């Protein structure tokens, strides 16, 4: 798009948008579905036009960031209308995981701390949603999700305070202890958390009727629970992504990098090291809890075994594989997680391996472990960093 | 020089520091006022760096007081220094290695309003404006020191002398009333030394400067006053000329047979 003038871009975008509207009206059965698709297409094309201008990105960084989030969410929502229930359910899980990865990416990539406890922080959010829903079934999901964020933040604060005195392996050790103890803590409050068997949501999370009624109920894909859930997960991930992009680009994000780079110099410019470290920890825990809260909604239930130590390790591996400290890296990691089950299913089907057997049950670990080794060997900055380097090299040719 | 000396900015009053049984500083007192350049000198191991670190709050005094009278503060933590109007450069260059030169200088303006967590999270307009203004003034600071051309480079890619200027630009970003320079001359060549000397002399107009330095040729013509440390004690204070002829100073530097 370099060299294309601003007004030419607008003309091209309007023409494209008009074509897209026309195509959706000819191609789609009902008027309202066509309207929905048209709006989606126009939003995507106009947004992409804005984002593609370097000048616009430089002069309006926040609007550009919002536009990127809106276009990404818009396109993702549109395609979920065409996917099968299984794919959508995987995508929902992956979108939630992306949120968790964003949080850890901020903690590790920006502030340079390591947490092996983010699986347990996810559990905090997951149980917050389940416990609240079992007492107040009618609370809007947005409110419940915000509560899971707050719960994660509070637990992050409690664990982060002692962490300000710890560094490197000692901090990792403390988060590890939390990850291992989490199951036992849940058992302590068995009457609330349901002990080993966990909790069931009182009813599945469904689209509100006004949303369903906009599209006629017979034809709307939103009437199926799986599409609504993946859409909720994608919108939530889009919002989380926007806020994280703000943090990365702001003075707070820079302060984290300063602390990581040279803590003495960071103090001298006026940054309180304990406060910066705790803040990064809280953000990471809150993001993890939000992802966990979504998982409870998607699975319609929560079990303590989901949030064991293995999950924390998987999260850490995914952040490294995707690319530490980058937003695309978190999305890539989420997608890898979303479809790892499909890869395993495909593998067992083609090799004749017993899906319930010993080997198949370990395949998940083998895949993530293998990917992790490959990443560290060949792309230390993760897939996102690798792609970015290739792209920059290609562009500067 | 006494005439243009202003209010007192830093006062060390009978400060002692013990590391276990080792007396790093013993009853050290001196002060720095606005409009003057004070040099802290002494042989190796005399306690210069410890005195500096006490002044910055990195080391707690075992006894005595560190005061910032202009800011109305005493015994501050390092992270409060910038807000008390004190900036410090570090030995070497002390830049942030994974941030660009421009980001390094912007970091110096961290305490300006509009950078709190919620403003950052929600990308509020005042935060965005503040960051934009910070970027502008960082570029201005780099231009002032004549190193604006390296703004978008990484610290590892620029020459040592330039990196030193960048670290001074960063220190000036908080608009300090007191500037602490830790070995500003080390590693610089003749031309750079002359530039630095002129720069520091120029800064005297708007702030007080305290510097620790080995290079006597650099320090002597530059400072208004010297504080000479030896074995953790102040053995002499005064102008360069006064100190140069001081018996204890000659003894400390050359060594004398008892």
Describe the structure in your own words.
The complex is a heterodimer of chains A (397) and B (258). Chain A has 397 residues and is mostly helical. Chain A has 18 helices and two strands. In chain A, strands 1-2 form a two-stranded antiparallel ribbon. The longest helix of chain A has 27 residues, at 273-299. The model of chain A has no long low-confidence stretch (mean pLDDT 88). With 258 residues, chain B is an alpha/beta fold. The A-B interface holds A 61-62, 65, 243, 246-247, 249-255, 257-258, 260-262, 264-273, 279 and B 56, 58, 77-83, 87-88, 90, 94-99, 103, 106-111, 114-117, 119-123, 127-128, 130-131, 134, 170, 173-174.
Quaternary: heterodimer
CATH class of the largest domain in chain A: Mainly Alpha
The biggest sheet of chain B, with number of strands, parallel, antiparallel or mixed sense and barrel status, is: 6 strands, mixed
Mean pLDDT of chain B: 90
Number of distinct helices of chain B: 10
The strand line-up of the biggest sheet of chain B is 6-7-8-3-9-10
Question: Alpha-carbon distance between the termini of chain B?
Answer: 37 Å
Q: Portion of residues in helices of chain B?
A: 25-40%
- Overall form of chain B: globular
Helices and strands of chain A: which structural class?
Answer: mainly alpha
In DSSP terms, counting alpha (H) and pi (I) runs of 4 or more, how many helices of chain A? Answer: 18
String of helices and strands of chain B: EEEHEEHEHHHHEHEHEEHH
